[in-house]
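Hi support team,

I submitted a single chain yesterday and got back a structure, but I'm not sure I'm reading the token output correctly. Could someone confirm the output below corresponds to the sequence I sent? I've pasted both exactly as they appear in my results page.

Thanks,
R.
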Amino acid sequence: MRKVLITPLFLGALILPTAALDLTLPGTPSPITTMQTLYDKIGTAIWYIFAVAALAMFVVAGISFLTAQGDPGKLETAKKAFIWGVVGIVAAVLAFSIVNIVKGLLT
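Hi R., thanks for writing in. Yes, this is the structure output for that exact sequence:
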């Protein structure tokens, strides 16, 4: 039951700050004028969500390490969570870099 309540709250905490950053007042023109601006805003929003998720992954792995109390199975699980967190960050940075390199080569 806890997972059912925690998941929407966690997703809301990820989405609300991103939505608040892009908030415009009524009557003001939308700042999105080109497809490139739209692409940049979506990329920035995804990058913010990824950063929060990566931080949460490392916090969960750290808490798992602290609560393992020497149990080899729990330590192995915590170690795997940490390693997959690092792999996720490396993959995201590589993906972001490859897109920017290709964009730079094509323009």
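A quick pointer for reading it: The first helix runs from residue 2 to 21. Let us know if anything else looks off.

Best,
Support desk
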